[in-house]
Here is the input.
Amino acid sequence: MNDDVRVCDAGQTGGLIQAMAGRIWEGSTPETPVRLIGVRSRGVPLAERLAAEAVAMGRGEALVGAVDITLYRDDLDQVPRWPVLRGTEIPFDVDGADVVLVDDVLFTGRTIRAAINAVCDLGRPRRIRLAVLVDRGWRELPIEPDVVGLKLATDRLDRVRVRLQPLDPADEIVRTPPPQTLSPS
Amino acid sequence: MSTAPSAADSRPPAAGGPDSEPAPPVWTRKHLLGLEDLSREEILAVLDTAESFSEISNRSRKKVPALQGRIVFNLFFENSTRTRTSFSLAAKRLSADVQDFSAQVSSLSKGETFIDTAKNIEAMGCDLMVVRHPTPGAPHLLSQHVSSSIINAGDGAHEHPTQGLLDLMTIRRAKGNVEGLTVALLGDIAHSRVARSNIWGLLKLGAKVILCGPPTLVPKAMERLGCEVAYRLEDVLPRCDVINVLRIQFERQQGGLFPSVGEYSQFYMMTQERVRKAKPDLLILAPGPINRGVELTPEVADGKHSAILNQVSNGLAVRMAVLYLLSGKMDAAPPVD
Here is the structure.
């Protein structure tokens, strides 16, 4: 049985990304260009989509990097198998940059804490902002996004998945409730 | 569906919870004892992980917190410069604590056994032991008696797996792929642990392996591993994509295996003249330490075909990858005692 609840279809997801891009580049100047860093894995295609929106808005080309937070996780001792590394690739100097960290879903904040540490190990950005497509709540660290596509009320055990082209066949945001356990009659 | 093994801001953080997606089981081993035991997929998993780690060496701040709180012991019962330093640096770059153990100044001289020494070190809270020993199989023996992960850093003339892996990484980076290449291992094959690890790794990744050297140093029986054996370097030079120049292991020889160093050099030293007889994109490797003027001339060692220093850099990335992969939770069998 599939309990997936589609929260946004492709058109709605695209609209959210467009609106996010508008807010990211609000007030940015050519002297301090925006540098996007996507958190692997789905933060990367989201960052690329935001960069494409910037071009469409006439803001010019935005450089996009990718950060792998695996080596900065605080739960490496608890995962059953150590994750496959996908590598950090930042094609620009982080020192003094106006960095926007991009991720698909913001939940506990632990991934973003790790991502901030990873970026700061590469240099000293002028500032770091956080842009997420979905904020599902349930924070465990004092981390708040600067740009949010969608605030979504969820149960703690819900699963929220973002699907984005070209990584996925189509754009969508899906919420899956936890499996119901049958109570004895 | 997401396959990202991320820290899961999109899922509850409890490992094994309802939303956790199992990472692909590319690496499930507790120890790295040799390349003979590894599958092609496992070798590629280490090489791919090493590629991710090579980026860290290019940063100004060359450190990540992945192994914070872990303790790595270097147990070296034989001299080493590169391997010990490389493992120490790799562990430090992963934020592990590193402790060096030297056999010469240990209680072994008071009669303590090899296994008791290791058990005492483990009682101090050791997570990983990097073991070099003159006896083939010593790391394998240790793996049956301690709970720590064991990394074979060279056991006699048997294997030196991280050297084999870093050679594969160097070849793959230079040539794009290992499959289909012809790789010659040149020199003292009989006494070389590097040769054995190279043979297993290269064959598993689809290379053709030629063993070349004097008959006293290249056992004919090694053909049974799937290698070609040749005694004249000039015969194989034009076919080689890569030549791995092995050191004459004077310390492991009983003597009398070739008339003189001078004669060995006359027939087997890589010179500029010999390089010109090979393919224009020939890649020359040497595990080190090199004997300039014996195995290869200084011009070749420092020339454009040489990847010797790349091997050293790649060795650091490979050892970071191995330390990382072996630090994950494993369902290992308990020690036999």
Summary: Residues 308-326 of chain B form the longest helix (19 residues). Chain B has two domains: 7-11+27-159+314-326, 161-311.
